[in-house]
Design brief:
The chain is of the alpha/beta class and about 250 residues long. It contains six helices and twelve strands. Strands 3, 4, 6, 7, 8, 10, 11 and 12 form an eight-stranded mixed beta sheet that branches. The protein has a two-stranded parallel ribbon with strand order 1-9. The relative contact order is 0.18. Mean pLDDT is about 85; it is low at about 1-20 and about 45-50.
């Protein structure tokens, strides 16, 4: 699980180095419904490019960290992200990943598209951890999708063990009706999701300063309008038990 991300300036945003256009347009395809957070299309920069929420992954043995597109299992989680960054409803869109074209990201990563699945927020003793850049510390699983020169479709795959560990996390928080709450948020209007996200931000029990260790996983339950916390070690156990060969 990656938990030390930074929000970079997205490719195509004014001030990002080396911006240039590419001719072809790629499409994202998913078996699991996924969502992305982007600036509202009416407020894009003069060259018509779009800014999608990205994170910077950690350096690893396989290479240096890179910008990864954030994908969400719920549009509400994307709205919560937008609310924390004080984005007004008219300043952002939550799109199905299949409706987003990631071509500007591919300028700098032409062979594989990195993406990370938002899972939850990091917390320390009942308080959400804030990063040095001001964002909430995100817990997510890192992935990458191969890009073909012959096929425009890019397949975003979330493996079954990842989905199972996500569901078990909500159960460990005592939120057994999460599937029903998720369905209600899918059916809700954009305005209602934004209102609920603002309430979630207001209900944050406190924030922990940057640098404090994460020892809990934080989840927000729309039905009770409360934040719930699960021990990080317990979640790590869930991930291990849900892994291949269990």
């Amino acid at each position: 699980m990656s938990d030390d991300y930074q929000i970079p300036t997205a490719p195509g945003y004014p001030g990002h180095p080396g911006r240039r256009r590419i001719a072809r347009r790629h499409m994202l395809q998913t078996l699991t419904p996924l969502y992305v957070l982007v600036r509202a299309t009416g407020l894009v920069s003069a060259d018509g490019l779009c800014q999608v929420m990205c994170e910077r992954t950690r350096d690893s043995e396989s290479g240096p960290g890179t910008n990864a597109m954030v994908v969400y299992l719920s549009p509400f989680e994307a709205c919560l992200d937008a609310a924390w960054h004080a984005l007004a409803p008219e300043r952002y869109d939550v799109l199905a990943a299949s409706a987003f074209t990631p071509d500007e990201l591919l300028i700098y990563q032409p062979e594989r598209l990195p993406y990370c699945l938002h899972v939850a927020w990091g917390a320390h003793d009942g308080q959400l951890v804030v990063r040095r850049d001001g964002g909430l510390l995100r817990l997510s699983s890192a992935h990458s999708a191969p890009i073909s020169r012959l096929i425009d479709a890019i397949h975003l795959r979330i493996e079954l063990p990842v989905l199972e560990s996500h569901e078990r996390l909500w159960e460990q928080a005592g939120l057994y009706a999460h599937a029903e709450s998720h369905a209600r948020m899918l059916a809700a209007s954009d305005a209602e999701r934004h209102r609920q996200a603002l309430q979630a931000i207001q209900r944050i029990p406190g924030t922990a300063r940057p640098g404090l260790p994460v020892n809990q996983v934080a989840l927000y339950d729309v039905e009770s309008a409360q934040w719930h916390f699960v021990a990080l070690k317990l979640f790590e156990t869930i991930v291990q038990e849900s892994g291949p060969g269990r």
